[in-house]
Specification:
Strand content: 5-15%
Oligomer: single chain
Number of strands: 7
Structural class: alpha+beta
Largest sheet: 7 strands, mixed
Distance between the termini: 20 Å
Helix content: 40-55%
Order of helices and strands: HHHEEEEEEHHEHHHHHHH
Mean pLDDT: 86
């Protein structure tokens, strides 16, 4: 099951960005007649365009489908086969992102933000994107991710590379790097419109007051996320990629459960300072177990698959 799921997710994450026939040179991205040139106008166009997707049923009806996990401080990414296949050099249509992000808050799927994904090849730089220099692009090296996941799984590697050959490399398309920028146009983000993460999400999921996240650290948010519904389940795919032993798996999951219990205890006691301190301490202890338990090789594998690099900490995939 995990074998098939991993192949599917890896191939889907690239295919989700390629709606058109890649056997021919990519056509210019479809851009509406309105071409805003200031960042504020571009963000407003985007905000208006995706407002209807606040209704999750509308997104599903229009063909948006999930890929990957519900990433802490982000949400689950959704793709649509009719969304633009942006490649290096294309102008972005700010009314047409090609990823939506949802997470469950209060029993409802909430649109946390959107993302633009642009396929780039070796030596090609990340897009200019929005006006100015505030948008923060990061890059997924898709081929490196496959190599990492298949390092000790030759059959997986063979299937994934065959798929890449059939759908891309044999057709002269070597754009296997995915440049991505998030835009938090639907929920407030204290770290900015284009921040990598939204640290308010675990507070919202735990139904904590808005003032609790104001001034709180990213470490507190990560610790609080352990106590959210399914907060310890997000590590499962990451640990499989690392190819951990059963004893390693048990140690990490036990540490997560302990951290989650500490946070829940603090929440029951109440108080902003108490809860945020508990979150920071829970994350620090869990992080220490993670570092001590995984080998450098295992952390390297995870880094290749993680959304923002590192050994999974920046993406909080564990």
């Amino acid at each position: 099951m995990k074998f098939a799921l991993t192949v599917g997710l890896m191939t889907m994450s690239l295919a989700a960005c390629t709606a058109q026939d890649i056997s021919t040179p990519p056509a210019p991205a479809l851009v509406d007649e309105y071409r805003p040139t200031t960042r504020s106008a571009q963000v407003e166009e985007l905000r208006v365009a995706v407002a209807r997707y606040s209704d999750f049923a509308v997104a599903r009806r229009e063909g948006w489908r999930p890929f990957g996990d519900d990433e802490p401080l982000m949400g689950t990414h959704y793709y649509n086969e009719s969304a633009p296949d942006y490649v290096a050099g294309d102008a972005l249509d700010f009314s047409r992102p090609n990823n939506l992000m949802y997470t469950e808050i209060g029993g409802q799927q909430v649109l946390t933000g959107v993302a633009f994904v642009v396929r780039i090849g070796p030596g090609e730089s990340v897009p200019d994107g929005f006006a100015g220099s505030m948008d923060r692009w990061h890059v997924h090296d898709f081929v490196a991710a496959i190599d990492a996941a298949a390092e000790e799984r030759p059959i997986l590697g063979g299937i994934a590379n065959w798929w890449l050959d059939q759908n891309y490399r044999n057709k002269g398309d070597n754009r296997g790097r995915l440049a991505m920028v998030h835009a938090w146009v639907t929920l407030e983000n204290p770290d900015g419109m284009f921040a990598d993460f939204n640290r308010t999400l675990p507070y919202r999921k735990l139904d904590l007051p808005e003032r609790y996240w104001q001034g709180a650290s990213i470490a507190a948010a990560r610790g609080l996320n352990l106590a959210t519904d399914g907060g310890c389940d997000t590590q499962n795919g990451t640990l499989w990629i690392a190819n951990v032993t059963r004893s390693q798996d048990r140690a990490i999951k036990q540490a997560c459960r302990i951290g989650a219990d500490e946070v829940r205890s603090a929440i029951s006691e109440g108080g902003k300072s108490r809860i945020n301190t508990a979150g920071e301490q829970a994350w620090a202890r869990f992080d220490a177990v993670w570092q001590q338990t995984l080998t450098p090789t295992q952390r390297r594998r995870i880094a290749a698959m993680s959304e923002h690099g590192g050994d999974g900490h920046e993406g909080m995939k564990h």
